[in-house]
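Example record for the data management plan.
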Amino acid sequence: MIVPEFWSEAKRQISHHDRQTTIRRFGWSDESEAAAQEHARGRLDDAIEHIQAGEQMLLREPKVPYNGADGLPIREEIIARHGDAVVTRNAYGALCLNTPDVLFADVDVTIKGGCAPYFYSLFLYAAGYFVLARMFVEARSIWLFLLGAIFFVIIAGSIWHWVADRLAGNPKDIARRRIERFAKRSPDWSLRLYETPLGWRVLVTHATFDPRSEEVRSFFEKIEVDPIYERMCFNQNCFRARVSPKPWRVGIPDHLRPRPGVWPVSDAGMAVRTRWVRHYEQKSKGFAACRFDSNLGGTSECPAAASIVRLHDELAFAQSDYPIA
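Corresponding structural encoding:
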């Protein structure tokens, strides 16, 4: 896991495909801005060498919080360091806890919906209507058909949804049972389960893990982790948990200002960012990012995980009665 303190960008014009093209590369460092600039120049020289050799390369790297496709580190403001763990502010303004080896897993619930039941209801109604129309000529009124279709589709479609939901079960309960099933089949694993607005968070405490290991990949697959989170863990070689509310869940409609919220920002933009953060922190009071639910599986806790449990629960207000957001 790399979360640098300093960032810089180097650029140079070269002749490429018979025209002048500007090549840009980022550099980073935990030492100083000068070291970040030196790193950027080195990466720029390397990129130009590959481009001039005929290789397909990006002409510039996008300024985004992190870009797993290119292997760029997490580009977020560092709020605090706790040993190997780093607390950062993400692109929309919330705080995130990043760990190199203490395993977090987010399992988001998919809310089922769609129009299929209503289309099926309409098909059944139309079929029944035309059968009756053959038997009773006076039933051919288009207005009667439309009025009947509206009521039938709404009622039948709603009943269809209700029955399907009862048969399948609540999506959040289904996700929980999947995690509990894993814990039961893996008694040597110790899991802490937290409720989130969209599902569950799992914090594994019995050992530390390599984010790119087969063991982690298999665990993610079995509990059906959010695929975006899984890709982030692999690309950034870390685990990550949001520990403060999402802005729009506490009444702030806009993301971190100035946009796009990527660190660092210019001196001119810093005042805008500071005002936004103060407003966000004020609105966030009385909300939790998640809520501790239960321990699953074993009860062992390795020292590295124990310190992260305390830090995570404190930052996220996971042991409070605050509404989760």
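Summary line stored alongside the record: The chain has a mean pLDDT of 86.
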